[in-house]
Amino acid sequence: MKVTVVGAGAVGASCAEYIAIKNFASEVVLLDIKEGFAEGKAMDLMQTASLNGFDTKITGITNDYSATANSDICVITSGIPRKPGMTREELIGINAGIVKTVSSSLIEHSPNTIIIVVSNPMDTMTYLVHKTTGLPKHRIIGMGGALDSARFKYRLAEALGAPISDVDGMVIGGHSDTGMVPLTRLATRNSVLVSEFLSEDRLNQVKEDTKVGGATLTKLLGTSAWYAPGAAVSGLVQAIACNQKKMFPCSVLLEGEYGLNDICIGAPVILGRNGIEKIVEIELSDAEKAHMQESSEGVRKTNGLLAL
Ligand SMILES: NC(=O)c1ccc[n+]([C@@H]2O[C@H](COP(=O)([O-])OP(=O)(O)OC[C@H]3O[C@@H](n4cnc5c(N)ncnc54)[C@H](O)[C@@H]3O)[C@@H](O)[C@H]2O)c1
Ligand SMILES: O=C(O)C[C@H](O)C(=O)O
After folding, report:
1. Which residue, by CA, sits nearest to atom 43 of ligand 1?
2. DSSP state of 34
3. Ligand 1 pocket mutation pick from 5, 33, 94 by most atoms within 8 angstroms of CB
4. Fewest beta carbons less than 10 Å away: which of 91, 120, 290, 307?
5. What is the architecture of the domain spanning 2-143?
6. What tens digit of pLDDT does each residue of 8-61 get?
């Protein structure tokens, strides 16, 4: 199993590290445009192999896509992160060009690959990859909901005073500060609805804290988060590589599902060796349907900025 990660920065290197430590991939290629950067990150990570007990071979390359040839999975993290006070959508002017060039270069050398898009604004970047590459829709996956759901569970556990392992919940919709749809109605504490434990006001606070989870960390860190994003990507990569048939909310091209067409937005999908094995349509409440519709309007507005 060969995995390429483009962008050896904070998220890309974390993603590569978690993939290596999970030891399910034979090879991870880190590629960056910054001279020597990916090579340095790869060497540093390989020097943890004996300490962290993995056999995964991590190599780094500067902007030479021949080294990525025949990758089973390619992760795109290349692009700039936001600064405090910015929205993800404000990154489109720089990141769209990067993602377009990178995705084309990847499929030139790995025409059968599955692409996972991380760069922001992620839903729009995922849509751009569809338009740029023409890959089958089951082989283009945007990572956002898996991260947002992890933050949702963190906030739920905090509110419940419960261990995170007791909590389950999912966030669908756009990966944006205003467009996320945390499904508090369905969230559980060890199979019991969280609404049995938490008031509506407290659950609304959990929702709002989840939606700005990224911005909260950007304000603290001065740049985007990277540990949880890297871990979320590694979970998607593992589900595909190991044909786990696990369900994650991912940004996926919808063609009628949830009443939406010609848009990439967070929805529950089953991930396996073919990438998106199935888009899962869950019954939403009227309020959730309205939030999903509102979220899609925000994503479409950003898509409209693309020079397709
Ligand atoms: N979808 C999500 O949930 C999520 C989570 C975290 C970060 N992000 C996004 O991921 C992106 C990366 O974030 P980061 O914190 O790792 O940033 P970073 O600046 O640490 O790393 C980005 C790397 O991309 C490289 N790069 C830039 N242009 C390139 C190109 N044309 N080819 C190859 N490499 C190139 C840079 O040299 C840099 O090393 C940002 O857009 C950020 O907003 C998304
Ligand atoms: O919020 C960001 O800028 C990065 C990423 O989308 C995140 O949610 O951490």
Report:
1. 81
2. S
3. 33
4. 307
5. 3-Layer(aba) Sandwich (3.40)
6. 999 999 999 999 999 999 999 999 999 999 999 999 999 999 999 999 999 999
